[in-house]
Fold this sequence. Notes:
Elements: H1 8-14, H2 41-48, H3 63-76, E1 80-84, H4 87-98, E2 104-108, H5 113-120, E3 129-133, H6 138-143, E4 149-155, E5 157-158, E6 163-164, H7 167-176, E7 181-184, H8 189-192, E8 202-206, E9 220-224, H9 237-240, H10 251-255, H11 259-272, H12 278-289, H13 291-310, E10 315-319, H14 329-335, E11 343-348, H15 351-361, E12 366-367, E13 377-379, H16 391-396, E14 403-407, H17 413-425
Parallel strand pairs: 2-3, 2-4, 4-7, 7-8, 12-13
Antiparallel strand pairs: 1-9, 5-6, 8-9, 10-11, 11-14, 13-14
Helix pairs in contact: 1-3, 1-12, 3-12, 4-11, 15-17
The chain binds pyridoxal-5'-phosphate (PLP).
Pyridoxal-5'-phosphate (PLP) is lined by residues 86-88, 112, 114-115, 155, 159, 184, 186-187, 206, 208-209, 218, 220.
Amino acid sequence: MSDRLPGFNTLAIHAGAAPDAATGARATPIYQTTSFVFDDVDHAASLFGLQAFGNIYTRITNPTNAVLEERIAALEGGTAALAVASGHAAEFLTMHALMQPGDEFVASNKLYGGSINQFNHSYKNFGWSVAWADNDDPASFEAAITPRTKAIFCESIANPGGVITDLAALSQIAKKHNIPLVVDNTMATPYLIRPFEHGADIVVHSATKFLGGHGNSIGGLIVDGGSFQWAGDARYPMMSQPRPEYSGMVLAETFGNFGFAIACRVLGLRDLGPALSPFNAFLILTGIETLPLRMQRHSDNALTVATHLSRHESVSWVSYPGLETDRYHALAKRYTPNGAGAVFTFGLKGGYEAGVKLVSNLQLFSHLANIGDTRSLIIHPASTTHRQLTDAQKTAAGAGPEVVRLSIGLEDPADLIEDLDAALAG
Length: 426
Ligand SMILES: Cc1ncc(COP(=O)(O)O)c(C=O)c1O
């Protein structure tokens, strides 16, 4: 082979994988085992002391999960990755490696609602606090930075869709203040946006969504961009200080540009425990093999359906950056030229009742709280995920009574449009 790097489609199928050395199995086997036999006592000692790479126990490493880790690192262009039990676990272990009690981070106000909850409430128990910034106003991120700020967090394409983040602008601010930029790339996947190319330092994923892509397994991933200089920076003791857990080893010195991924694994995953089942790793790997095909089709279908809805008499607005008239279209052209993803929101002229009627009438769309399936999905946030909020709070969260969110699947767009038209008329 030449020195040329393989293309994205090739990496999606091959990165990290090889025929199984023991059996020749071509698909990556599911190593459904809790633990691994040591060669001898010295081998065991070197594994426990981090002097050698290898498998001890599936909470920390597993050969099926390792293929998934290598594959996502290759697709994102990072130095290393860590597979964990869910997207939330990926966010949590990332923050665990970055934050000490009393520390802060600045987060975009346009995030998946579960992340907003996690940051506002659960993280308080660890003494970590979040400052919210306006995703459309990079200066508001800078204004929220204090001497205790340890990271900036955003989504590349923000859930519930329709928002594109100016990653380069946020990266500039992060670099100026010498803090890492953490990007949740769930909605875009590396097929649409590769955040490291725009200055991100760490990428996290809910692999539950488009990476797995078939609505059958929960999983999460952390990818180390290898760009942040942890060594010698006492603000980040997990990476930069001698670790008592490993006889005083300094992870950033021993592991260099993948020290962050190692810290997440040997301090976070080892001690806090949200390990990914190898079976789920297998399903997510299988999903990733068709990621480029699926993401292109998701985006093309979403544009077709969004265009149709934008002209529909029952619809007051559509928020999809793929539409030329959309306020985020210029950012979409810059950051995601192949398409703006599968997920978008729209407003119904008939308000709350029309939303309830629509989700009840649809036949092909599934009414459920997920995105990133082969199947098309719909949710009416005001009657489900945001039900407990007042109308004013719903509107502030982008979940007003008239708002509907779609995650467009891989079906024939004509069938999706027919289903929507019939349900809107019904
Ligand atoms: C953008 C985004 N990040 C993180 C998560 C959390 O992922 P998980 O459900 O795998 O924990 C989700 C879930 O919907 C999401 O949409």
